[in-house]
Write a structure and sequence with these properties.
Helix content is 33%, strand content 22%. By secondary structure, it is of the alpha/beta class. It has a single domain, classed as P-loop containing nucleotide triphosphate hydrolases (Rossmann fold, 3-Layer(aba) Sandwich), CATH 3.40.50. The protein binds guanosine-5'-triphosphate and magnesium ion.
């Protein structure tokens, strides 16, 4: 995929502030620290377009990036961050849910899981919720470079077992360090954008 432009457009705290155009959007979701921002930078061949360090405040916003003037990537705030209070968590959930349900331009959601671990209840809850709401999902296993070939296979298998009762079975292994998985993920993204 040739990236001719990748621009940060805005951060929004409320769905009323979403871009008012008809450009398709793909959102990226996953546990805090799973590697969302790193994956976006890697996909877009940019080093610092998306902030990798954790800036509290920013992480509770929806961040819109316009790619090739053709589609948006939306970096969603990570879930499961232990230090947030119940009230903040509720607000976060509302913002993300409102966005996912209200964005008429949303084509799909990339769900990131950390391949070193098994999917969490929150990951499966999100996948189930997306299926229930007919929102196409792509599952990506991050940090594949941290696993040996054999261990990677086992982890993919173990996680696939957890997906048994869902429609999506495929997990795309990805490394933001090496770029492994980039072509496969782009193919899936372009399919979703074309649908
Ligand atoms: P929040 O925005 O805080 O929710 O985190 P995030 O999901 O955006 O994760 P981020 O990209 O900031 O990465 C978290 C940490 O994991 C950083 O220290 C990254 O360098 C590291 N990391 C992310 N992706 C990879 C990867 O593919 N391989 C390796 N080895 N490290 C990674
Ligand atoms: Mg991030």
């Amino acid at each position: 995929m040739k990236i001719t432009s990748a621009d940060f457009i805005k951060s929004v705290a409320d769905t009323s502030q979403m871009p008012r155009d008809h450009i398709p959007q793909i959102a990226f979701a996953g546990r805090s620290n799973v590697g969302k921002s790193s994956l976006l930078n890697s996909l877009l061949n940019r080093k610092k377009l998306v902030q990798v360090s954790n800036t509290p405040g920013k992480t509770r916003l929806l961040n819109f990036f316009l790619i090739n003037n053709k589609f948006y990537f939306v970096d969603l705030p990570g879930y499961g961050y232990a230090k947030v209070s119940k009230q903040i968590y509720k607000n976060w959930q509302k913002l993300v849910e409102n966005y996912l349900l209200q964005s008429t331009n949303l084509k799909g959601v990339v769900v990131l899981i950390d391949l070193r671990h098994l999917m969490t209840a929150a990951d499966l809850e999100l996948i189930s919720w997306l299926e229930h709401n007919n929102i196409p999902a792509i599952i990506v296993g991050t940090k594949s470079d941290k696993l040996s070939g054999n261990k990677l296979k086992t982890q993919l298998k173990q996680n696939a077992i957890l997906l048994k009762k869902y429609y999506i079975k495929k997990i795309i292994p990805y490394s933001s360090e090496t770029g492994a998985g980039k072509n496969e993920l782009w193919s899936s993204l372009l399919l979703v954008l074309d649908s």
